[in-house]
Structure formats: structure tokens, C-alpha cells
Amino acid sequence: MITSTFLAAAPLLLAAFAGVAEATSCNATTPCPSSAPCCSEYGFCGTDSFCLGGCNPFASNTLDSCRPEPLCKNSNFTFSDQSRILSNFTFFDGNVSAYDWTVDKGNIQNSDGSLALVLTETNGGTRISSTRYVHYGTITASLKTGRWGGVVTAFITMSDVKDEIDWEFPGGNTTQGQSNYFWQGLIPDKTNGGIHGGLTDTFSNYHDYTIDWQPDALTFSIDGKTVRTVKKTDTVDAKGVANYPTTPARIQLSLWPAGITGTPQGTVDWAGGMINWDDPDYKAAGQFYALVKSVSVQCSDSEVTTLTSNITSYVYGGNRSDTSPTILYTNKTSLLNGAGRIAPIMGGVSGSLLALGMGVILGVNALLL
Ligand SMILES: *[C@@H]1O[C@H](CO)[C@@H](O)[C@H](O)[C@H]1NC(C)=O
Ligand SMILES: *[C@@H]1O[C@H](CO)[C@@H](O)[C@H](O)[C@H]1NC(C)=O
Ligand SMILES: *[C@@H]1O[C@H](CO)[C@@H](O)[C@H](O)[C@H]1NC(C)=O
Ligand SMILES: *[C@@H]1O[C@H](CO)[C@@H](O)[C@H](O)[C@H]1NC(C)=O
Ligand SMILES: *[C@@H]1O[C@H](CO)[C@@H](O)[C@H](O)[C@H]1NC(C)=O
Ligand SMILES: *[C@@H]1O[C@H](CO)[C@@H](O)[C@H](O)[C@H]1NC(C)=O
Ligand SMILES: *[C@@H]1O[C@H](CO)[C@@H](O)[C@H](O)[C@H]1NC(C)=O
Ligand SMILES: *[C@@H]1O[C@H](CO)[C@@H](O)[C@H](O)[C@H]1NC(C)=O
């Protein structure tokens, strides 16, 4: 399932603010004009925050229209202090020294030292994104899911060209977690999803869900026990292309309403039906919620990047027509107003640079499904 679908209603709203924005849509075949050079994650052209997290380099005016993607940093975020979560992404200026996370949509709260992601009938759900990217690494979230049909809790990684790795929790079932992955937004003929049952109630108990994303394999674990491994070589398609996530990704946590009017029936069924806004939990609390206690990040490339001084970010290299996204390490600032040219100072790590064909699927926008 594509978790990002819950933001499908957001683009027009988002296009209405944040500096220069045009209600012009963009994709790899129709990139943004120079007047509004950045193609946001929602597929609209603009400036400012449109050029930060989620900005698609291949659908933007030039390959370097998007700001460089802030480098991965080993961290363990606990959420008793929420001062480093920017409450509205629109006002983010790319300063990762100031903020670790942005609220992209919705509302957060502090619940006994955990981060509450809030869903109400009017807010359309909540999503936060890390300000830094991960280019291979081990990410663990300790969380309690929702328990309501149609309400989905998610912990995912999402790249700017829509490589995606998911832990998802459809609220109708609190004894399972679902793993999934997508390559460049392509919906596979046969689902990549996995179901992992036998958990003690995921609403009442914190469990540790891990995404261990390495250049050659992707491993999903629950409470430290491996439940699934996908080898890159297992993902090679008929054309010989590995349909495997390879591009730097933000970490995203969300609680989203799948069981609402307008959602495709298959998604509603998967999520556990239409949301019951008369649920006693909703009546009592005035909201649905999921709780995140901590998120730890161990970057696979940290050894390399600390060996080379002053690396601060990732950029996409090569040329737009290349079939392979190449990721370069640079010392270029991610700040919106940071001047200067991109100066790649390193060609990347062997293995992590394995580039894949972009092919025809570049134009696919998972949000539209
Ligand atoms: C992150 O911090 C939390 C809270 O202190 C702790 O329970 C957890 O084990 C830590 N995770 C890692 C990977 O160190
Ligand atoms: C970035 O944030 C840090 C921490 O808040 C602050 O000290 C610094 O001045 C900011 N940098 C810019 C360029 O705004
Ligand atoms: C963020 O700020 C913009 C501009 O003021 C506003 O339109 C939008 O509703 C805000 N988003 C949230 C989630 O508060
Ligand atoms: C919940 O998921 C588990 C594990 O996949 C399954 O065995 C069980 O039947 C499901 N329960 C419901 C109520 O759907
Ligand atoms: C690293 O940054 C420092 C301070 O900005 C600068 O003096 C130094 O020349 C930089 N080194 C390299 C190799 O770019
Ligand atoms: C980009 O790559 C395409 C296909 O390889 C090639 O035809 C084109 O000349 C390249 N453009 C530039 C500016 O290098
Ligand atoms: C970035 O790297 C370039 C090339 O090595 C160097 O000239 C420049 O001083 C560096 N800038 C910073 C801020 O480190
Ligand atoms: C790309 O965007 C253009 C302009 O909005 C649209 O006409 C075209 O159908 C889109 N292409 C794809 C593959 O979505």
C-alpha cells in the first residue's frame, strides 16, 4: 500500500502558499519552468519549501534546482522534547541544525513523553518527516499503533524519486505489522507486501519496528527479531533491472485516514473498512492517535562521510536523461538561501552508487493512485 496516498488532497492547498508557487504540475517528462523551478513531492512547481524535502530533482527545472538533501546523521530521537520538530513544513528553511523533523500535515502532541500523531475528522491525518535523509542505514521506531478500522499507522522511508520502504499497520488488526517496499513509485504487478502476525496488541504495547536498509539487502525486524529479508538480487525484473530502493530517503511517521470517501475500495478494505467517527475512543479523546516513543538512526554511510571532511549533503548527479540516478556526496548547504555552486567532492561509496534505470516509470506519481 502506498502510504503517501493520504496526502493526495494536499497539493492544491500546498500550492497556495510557500513563496512563488504555480498550480503547474510537474513530472519527469514535463519538468518545472525556471520561474517556479522546484517540483514538490506532491507534483507541483514552486520555490522555497518546494525545493526542500520531497523535491524531485528529475521533475524540477534543472537537476540542481532542488536544494541538496541533508546528510544522514546517527541519532536516537526521543520525543519528550518536541522543540526540534517544526510544526509547519512550509516555514522550513533547510536548517537541519534547528530542526530534526517537520510536521507536513496535521497536528502533534506530547503524550507522556511520546509523540502523539493525531487524526481527526477534519485534520485529514498527520505526517512528520525527518529533515535529514538516510542513504542506507538501520532505522528503528518504537511505537504504539492505532486500533481503529480504516485508520492506518505508518513508519516509512520515502525518497524524492519515490523509493519507499514501509512498516504499516492497518488499524483493524492489532496483532500484525505489514512490510512493503516500492521502487521509484512503480506499483508492481504482484505486491511486495508482507504480513507479520503474532504480535501482542500493537495499540497497547510499544514494539520496536526496524528497517535495515543496506545496498544489497533489506531486512525488516520486530523487537530485534528478523521477520523478513529481501535481497536486492531477488528484485531484478525481466529487463534485468533491480526494483530496489537506492536513493536517499526521509523517515516519515504518519497516522492517516484510509477509510474515508474518495479512497479506492481496495485501500479501504485493506485498511479495515470505513472509519467509524462514533467510535467510543474517538468520542472520549476527541481524536484518534498513534504514539511514537523513539526513532533511532544508524547511517550506513557515516564511516565514509566522517572520513571525508565537510560533507553535508547528497545530490543527484548525472544528467536527466541518464537511466541511472547517481548519488553524490557534497559539502553544499541545504539552506534555502545558501548561495554557491554544487561542488561534488566525492563520487560516493562503492555499492551505494549502484544506479538503476529510471525508465518510463519516472512519470508515475504514486500519489495519484
Ligand atoms: C533510543 O532511546 C530510547 C529511549 O532512551 C531507548 O529505549 C532505545 O533503546 C534507544 N535506541 C537505541 C538504538 O539506542
Ligand atoms: C540554524 O539553526 C541554528 C540552531 O538554531 C542557528 O544557530 C543558526 O544560526 C541557523 N542558521 C541559519 C543560517 O539560520
Ligand atoms: C502551514 O502554514 C500554511 C501557511 O500559513 C497554512 O496554510 C497551513 O495550513 C499550515 N499547515 C499546518 C499543518 O498547520
Ligand atoms: C489479524 O492478523 C493475523 C495475522 O495476520 C491473522 O491471523 C488474524 O486473523 C487477523 N485478525 C483479524 C481480526 O483480521
Ligand atoms: C572545511 O570547512 C572549513 C570551515 O568551513 C574550511 O576552512 C576548510 O577549508 C574546509 N575543507 C575542505 C577540504 O573543504
Ligand atoms: C544526457 O544523456 C543523454 C542520453 O545519454 C545524451 O543524449 C545527452 O547528450 C546528455 N546531455 C548532456 C547535457 O550531457
Ligand atoms: C567545499 O568544497 C570545495 C571544493 O573542495 C571547497 O573549495 C570549498 O571551500 C568547500 N566549502 C566548504 C563550505 O567547506
Ligand atoms: C506530466 O505532466 C504533464 C503536464 O501536467 C501531463 O500532461 C502529462 O500527462 C504528465 N505525464 C505523466 C506521465 O504523468
From TrEMBL:
Residues 62-279 form the GH16 domain. GO terms for cellular component: fungal-type cell wall. One of its GO terms (molecular function) is hydrolase activity, hydrolyzing O-glycosyl compounds. This is Glycoside hydrolase family 16 protein. The chain crosses the membrane at residues 342-368. InterPro entries: Beta-glucanase-like, Chitin-binding_1_CS, ConA-like_dom_sf, Glycosyl_Hydrlase_16. Keywords: Glycosidase, Hydrolase, Membrane, Signal, Transmembrane, Transmembrane helix. PANTHER family: GLYCOSIDASE CRH2-RELATED, GLYCOSYL HYDROLASE-RELATED. The keyword Transcription regulation does not apply. PROSITE patterns: CHIT_BIND_I_1, GH16_2. Residues 1-23 form the signal peptide. GO terms for biological process: carbohydrate metabolic process; fungal-type cell wall organization. It comes from Pholiota conissans.
